[in-house]
Write the structure tokens for this entry.
Amino acid sequence: MKKCLSKSCFAALIILVNSLMASAEELDILVVGLFANQAVVEVNGQHHLLKVGKTTPEGVKLIAANSTEAVLEVNGQQQTFPLGNRISSQFTPAPEQPAVSLWPTNGMYLTTGTVSGYTVDFLIDTGAFTVALNSATARRLGLDFYRGEQIGLRTASGYDVGYKVTLDYVQIDEIKVYNVAAVVIDGPEPATALLGMSFLGQVDMQHNGERLDLRQKY
């Protein structure tokens, strides 16, 4: 094999060395702006406006973004970057947390979970302040709900009476949240238990197209 002594070969060698040095360089990453599915990311002092799926020249890829945080892929690892938090690319990725992916059925997200060990079918409802169960489901779960604080509720069928309770835990696959506030409606509604914000507010939720991803918080 002949040795390459031309200027072009020497230049190519310099470019290769510089490229290898750059790939080994530690990146200083800061999220300075967040929008729906877009983020302004500062990498080593340079600002880049990224849309989901786009990558900076340094190899930082935007996976997702909302009003509070961005998910970036760096060196093949995904990491959540809150607004204004400076993170080095030499981070040690956090342990993978349990996650559940749901697809809609007739526009609704349905899933099966457990409440204190009993199986319950749920409808994901971000408009519900709390988990909501009908009285038959509550009795099946062994809840003495009449001891709870009585409240008035406006439901699809009109005005109903509800009782505040606390569930030992609610689990969806491997995601488990303890001491979940709930309300038991004294009647047949809701026919399917509502998985409201007393549970959903304690997990990370993210829409990826039609798919809804739930992930246990750290």
